[in-house]
Structures are given as structure tokens and as C-alpha cells.
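Hi V.,

You were right to ask for the full record rather than a summary. Here it is.
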Amino acid sequence: MGHVLVLNASYEPLNITTWRRAMVMLLKGKAEGLEHDPSHAIRPDLLLPTVIRLRQFVRVPYRQVPLTRRNVFHRDSHICQYCGHGGDTLSIDHVVPRSRGGTDSWENVATACLPCNVRKANRTPREAGMPLLREPRRPLGSLGFEASRQIRTGQHQEWAKYVVESQMIQTPAA
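Predicted structure:
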């Protein structure tokens, strides 16, 4: 038994919670079940929920996705943003090198394989003649980011219709 996606009354993803907490919300009438796991029954007439929706709208403050290696690799789908190679020998590349004023920011880091990272060296992609496959952007929200990770790993395919995986803030990259 696993996690449950919690949607606001407006169907906007709010949280990922435990199945026990979701069941409490359902039994108290605070939420309704939208998706259920047919292989897990809590009792004969009640299936385990995988997606619930709150009956009343809840205002939640925005939370940014932290800039970590794991999150950069996830954003870039574990492929080199210069050549498209995927594998175990991936690293983080600064689009504008730190030695030339580049910062540690979502818009300035990209996944790169080691050969591309070495080939690009201390240059910008334009100077190295190595265009990026996708411009690096900041993910919009931490919940959608985490939910899309679970969808991609095949754990909760039913969440896909409630979570927009490609939500990115449109900002230009160097």
C-alpha cells in the first residue's frame, strides 16, 4: 500500500499523503475518492484510494523545488542535454561556467555526459558549438515535480491525468 495524491477542490494537486491519512479524510467526509487500487480492499465494499479530492478549497502557499543533483537529473529525464545520451556517467554542467560568472541556478545547470562536459570545457554552449536539446528552466512546483517522478517510475500511472509534468516557468537561458 502506498501514497495517495490529494487534489484541491479545484482538482489542482496539493499533496501526497499516506493511505491511512487519505482514509481518515474520506471517512470524515472531507474528501472524495477519484481513483482506487482494485488490488487492495480496505474492506469488501471499500477499495484503497490512490487519488482523492478535497470537498472544500484550501489555499496553499507556493513551494519551490530545491536545486539538487537528483532534481536536475529528473528535470532533464536523465539524458545529456547536449548529445541525448542517457546512462550512469552523467554530471551537472554549468551552461555559463562558474569561472565566468555563471551561478548555481535552475536556468544555468543542465545534465551532461562526461565526454560532453569535458568537450564543452570552460565555454558557453554557443562558443563550443554544442547547442542544448532543451533550455534549462525552473520547475513550477515541488508537488507536481515529485508526482511526475512517481508517474515516470510507473508507480502511479493514474496520477498522470491530474498532474501536468511539463509545467515550467518560461525563462530564457544563456
